[in-house]
Design a protein that fits this description.
Blueprint lengths: L1 H15 L9 H10 L3 E4 L4 H10 L7 E4 L9 H5 L7 E3 L5 E3 L4 H8 L4
Parallel strand pairs: 1-2
Antiparallel strand pairs: 1-3, 3-4
Length: 115
């Protein structure tokens, strides 16, 4: 019986070390993204854009965001000139673009920012 309890405790300890933990500061992560040239093009009516913003919480204020939608839902000139075709679109310092909601790990891989 003691062996089963000991094995159970060890399993819990091992598995708890396998979960991802949030960064020390999401603020610092968002600031690093901006400092490293990452920006997100989006639209106020886009559910995936809103999901991406929600992932950052209050720290979103430190990310670079370009609103692409006019009040009537049409694309504004800035985003049309940039060739943005879908939302969200992340653009990185080297000009690479990725469409869709990105995880913090994916953003970290693209920018070198620790998360």
């Amino acid at each position: 019986m003691k062996t089963i309890i000991l094995i159970s405790i060890l399993a819990v300890l091992i598995l708890s070390g396998c979960t991802s933990t949030p960064p020390v500061s999401t603020d610092d992560f968002a600031k690093c993204l901006t400092a490293n040239g990452a920006k997100m093009y989006g639209a106020f009516w886009c559910s995936h854009c809103n999901e991406q913003k929600k992932n950052f919480g209050e720290s979103w204020q430190y990310a670079t965001y370009i609103e692409c939608s006019n009040a009537d839902g049409t694309q504004n000139e800035e985003c049309a000139a940039a060739g943005i075709e879908g939302y969200p679109t992340w653009e990185f310092k080297d000009g690479t673009r990725k469409s869709g909601t990105m995880t913090f790990n994916q953003l970290s891989d693209m920018t070198g920012c620790d998360y």
